[in-house]
Design brief:
Distance between the termini: 149 Å
Shape: flat
Structural class: alpha+beta
Number of strands: 35
Largest sheet: 8 strands, antiparallel
Number of helices: 20
């Protein structure tokens, strides 16, 4: 625009000071050389200039604006108090945030009952020199509501002088105090530390009763407002409870209890009393950091002026509390609410690179790999109907539409990357920090294209899909999620994705449809078509813009998976029964079979192999029980995976101990090691080494959600961290070592004979050990060899079936080859059973023999004065000992 025609204009003094929302309305300043020129003449000149250039502009488009004090009085205002605004002159209307306040026409004075959402710009509209005259003030003195946190209602056993600590806290900006409303003389204040008040209980002889306390804002002007205080009750009773502690108070079996969060949190912790253990169990934390809760309340009253600073503070606070946020469903849910409030505000604004950059920083914290377990809980439909993940994605889509459309830029983090580009031809770009996606638009034109690439939303969004009737069980998000927006209509978009899990099959090109599943949202394939699937890359074409990704499912059909589950559970049942029988037999014949060191160590190895596999199978069943159809219950599943890993490894390491024992007794014949030393080495190797491997594995991979598998099974992760190698490598290494030991031992035996290589009493034990190692080691190795084959060829149904059969029947193999095929064990069992069956008859014979000997003894007394009686052995059926008796007597002589 040419300002030179304006009366009194100083050349080159026009300066744009601010773009208003929409980026077409501006604030500018002009310098005039003639102080007598009126604002009216200047505005009329600008209007005439614009109309000459065919711009449509109203005759009253210009107004006189003046910042002034409209609010009567100074200082802070609290919610539900009256705010008085005063404006002199003939008032046309009052406005708030650009909107006319109802029933305000002609009023010089405006009185309003305020809430925190009433902070913002107020305008008093009148006229001056035939121009609209606006006097305005930005009011930010209205305080947020206090966040008061108190102890929960509790039941307490009344004991004189018992100490009880009670909570009374509030957020910054308010001071609170504890007041006893009606304590019936039960409580005596002892002191205060920060938010905690210490009381001692007294007057318990009065019997059961209650004490009511109030935590209130220490401001008499707010006493009449309900938000200024919070009341709780303590109930005292004489008898004890099934459960009682300081956090939840007392409760009986099955009763729920409520406790407080940490001092810097608001919310509650709930638990249930287990009368058997006397403990409050299954605690569920619904706690939000106070600083996050304050931001959530503040986000309800944001304006264009306060938005940039607010988002920056939100970014700083989330980074400062990243670990606590990542492990808290309540904190993540609160932050998603804040992001939605921010996004809603931006629908009427134009935001810049700084605002969207801070928004993405916050988003990166709540979708980082460390939040994997937390999102699993948020998406667990069995526990909650919350739709947090879809709400988060919706906030991203809304705020992207408000970006300034005149600048190309990139911003983001390692897991979220935003790119805004202006093109006047076809568009072809790789996306993501690791170039895991690409987009191609063949259409030519002047486009503003915005893309956001998320590398971790596969951990955040559920895999429910419209075409498969919500089949989250079989589907997985198997690529980055790409949000794509264009400032024009695009009917042909080509997208390519690198796969996350290369073992999955059946790719589907999908976008997130917020209208599916009654507004909860889900993946939809409408308007998208699969073009190619090769070299672990999927290419799709879609005829619209939104958020895209790839859904895939396991290559094994559901019917075969059901068969595999059936084989596995039947086999594990047989394995458990076999292992229990094995341990019973070992206990039955233990004494008779462990008389020399070699035999003793052999049976120690068999027992510990059986115990390790038994515990591993039990944890396998537990893991299967806690895995559900929508997502793995991460905490319990992690525990199950740890113990399965530990005891499967222990089984292999005890097999290694057996092989080393065989090597020691056949190759190192002249060496003699104490039994205690052999036991120490065996248990250190059998359980110590697996424990170290299991602990290191969980410590190295659990933090980023890479310990357990993404699929519905509690087992070590393969695709993300290769944690499964912590089992496969030790197991196959032991198989190789054991086979090498067998080759050496067989060479020695064939060269010199087993009788020459061992002591005579060790021959049988060594032969049995050799047979077990020779048979079970290849069998177990072959089993897990098939497991590796499954990872290499997941679509091979035969490998799955053979692995399921061999893996689930390992307990039966141990019973057969480790116990039942040992001839010495069978002989010992037969002897033990014969002894027990003849035990009752032996007792009757012993009794008769004893009576006969006693009669003979008395007969001898009558026949001679000196006699020697030697009774036959009197067998005690309980101890198996014999006794002989001798008596010498001389009548009249000593």
């Amino acid at each position: 625009m040419n300002f030179r025609r304006l009366p009194g204009y100083e050349a080159d003094s026009a300066d744009v000071t601010r773009f208003s929302p929409g980026s077409v309305i501006v604030d500018l300043s002009l310098k005039l050389t003639d102080p007598t020129v009126s604002f009216l003449s200047v505005s009329n000149g600008i209007i005439a200039e614009l109309k000459a250039k065919n711009y449509k502009i109203a005759d009253d488009a210009f107004v006189v604006s003046e910042r002034t004090n409209l609010k009567v009085g100074s200082g802070r205002l609290f919610p539900q108090q009256n705010m008085e605004l005063q404006c002199n002159g003939s008032v046309t209307e009052w406005r708030f945030k650009g909107q006319t306040i109802p029933d305000s026409s002609g009023k010089n004075q405006l009185i309003k009952i305020v809430s925190p959402s009433d902070n913002g710009r107020y305008e008093c509209v009148s006229s001056k020199n035939s121009l609209p005259f606006i006097r305005w003030e930005n009011i930010d003195a209205i305080q947020q509501l206090p966040i008061i946190e108190t102890s929960r209602n509790k039941r307490i056993v009344c004991q004189n002088e018992k100490q009880v600590t009670l909570l009374c806290c509030s957020n910054s900006g308010y001071t609170v105090k504890m007041v006893k409303m009606d304590d019936n003389g039960y409580l005596k204040e002892q002191g205060k530390s920060d938010c905690r008040y210490l009381y001692s209980i007294q007057n318990c002889t009065n019997g059961p009763g209650k004490a009511q306390l109030i935590c209130k804002v220490d401001n008499p002007a707010l006493d009449s407002f309900s938000y200024s205080s919070k009341t709780f009750t303590l109930t005292f009773q004489a008898e004890g409870f099934d459960c009682e502690d300081e956090q939840f108070g007392g409760g009986d079996n099955g009763q729920p209890g409520e406790g407080n969060c940490n001092v810097d949190e608001v919310g509650k912790v709930t638990a249930v009393c287990n009368g058997t253990t006397g403990e409050w169990e299954n605690p569920e934390r619904n706690c939000v950091l106070v600083v996050i809760k304050e931001l959530e309340k503040e986000s309800l009253t944001l304006t264009a002026t306060t938005l940039p600073g607010f988002v920056e503070r939100l970014s700083n606070i989330t980074f400062q509390n990243e670990d606590r946020i990542a492990n808290s469903t309540s904190n993540i849910e609160s932050i998603v609410t804040i992001l939605n409030n921010v996004a809603n505000i931006t629908q009427e604004l134009t935001i810049n690179e700084d605002v969207i950059g801070n928004f993405i920083n916050v988003s990166s914290v709540i979708v980082s790999n460390s939040t994997f377990n937390t999102w699993g809980e948020l998406n667990d439909v069995n526990k909650t109907a919350r739709n947090v993940s879809a709400s988060f994605l919706g906030s991203i889509e809304v705020i992207v539409r408000s970006l300034q459309g005149d600048t190309s830029f990139e911003t983001g983090t390692d897991i979220i990357q935003l790119r805004q580009t202006f093109v006047n031809s076809s568009y072809n770009e790789t996306l993501g920090a690791d170039s895991s996606a690409a987009v191609f638009i063949p259409e030519e034109g002047n486009f503003a294209i915005t893309t956001i690439t998320f590398s971790t939303l596969n951990n955040v969004l559920p895999a429910r899909n419209s075409s498969d009737n919500d089949s989250s069980l079989s589907n997985s998000i198997n690529a980055a999620v790409v949000l794509f927006q264009v400032n024009d209509t695009i009917t042909n978009i080509s997208l390519s994705f690198d796969l996350i899990n290369e073992t999955l099959e059946n790719p589907q090109c999908v976008f997130w449809n917020f209208e599916l599943f009654d507004g909860f949202g889900g993946w939809d394939s409408f308007g998208c078509e699969l073009i190619s699937f090769e070299n672990n890359t999927v290419t799709c074409e879609c005829n619209h813009t939104t958020s895209f990704s790839i859904l895939m499912s396991p290559s094994i059909p559901p019917g075969i998976r059901l068969l595999l589950d059936f084989i596995t559970y039947i086999g594990v049942g047989i394995s458990l029964a076999s292992l229990i029988i094995c341990l019973i037999i070992e206990g039955f014949i233990w004494k008779s079979m462990t008389r020399n060191d070699t035999s003793y160590m052999r049976h120690v190895c068999v027992v510990n192999v059986a115990v390790s596999l038994l515990i591993a199978d039990i944890w396998f069943i537990i893991g299967a029980a806690i895995s559900d159809y929508q997502s793995v219950a991460v905490g319990p599943c992690t525990a199950a995976t740890f113990f399965i890993h530990l005891f499967y490894l222990a089984m292999f390491f005890w097999m290694l101990v057996s092989a080393l024992l065989l090597f020691y007794r056949t190759v190192m014949v002249l060496s003699q090691m104490k039994r205690s030393t052999m036991l120490a080495i065996a248990f250190s190797l059998g359980y110590g080494a697996p424990l170290i491997i299991a602990v290191v594995t969980v410590a190295a991979t659990a933090g980023g959600g890479g310990y357990i598998r993404e699929e519905n099974v509690c087992w070590l992760n393969w695709n993300k961290t290769k944690a499964l190698l912590a089992f496969v490598i030790p197991a196959l290494t032991i198989v190789a070592i054991n086979l090498l030991v067998m080759i050496v031992v067989l060479f020695k035996m064939l060269k010199r004979g087993v009788g020459d290589t061992t002591q005579n009493n060790d021959k049988h034990a060594l032969v049995v050990i050799a047979r077990c190692v020779a048979i079970l080691t290849p069998l177990f190795g072959l089993t897990w060899g098939f497991g590796i084959g499954i990872m290499a060829a997941p679509e091979a149904v035969g490998l799955h079936v053979v692995f399921a059969v061999l893996n689930s029947l390992q307990g039966l193999f141990i019973l057969v080859f480790g116990t039942l095929l040992d001839s010495k064990i069978k002989e010992a069992l037969v002897r033990r059973l014969r002894n027990q069956s003849s035990g009752s008859g032996g007792t009757r014979s012993t009794s008769a023999g004893t009576s006969s000997n006693v009669l003979d003894f008395f007969r001898g007394i009558r026949r001679r004065n000196v006699y020697n009686v030697s009774g036959g052995p009197v067998v005690n059926s309980g101890s198996g000992t014999s006794s002989s008796y001798s008596a010498v007597n001389s009548s009249g002589n000593t």
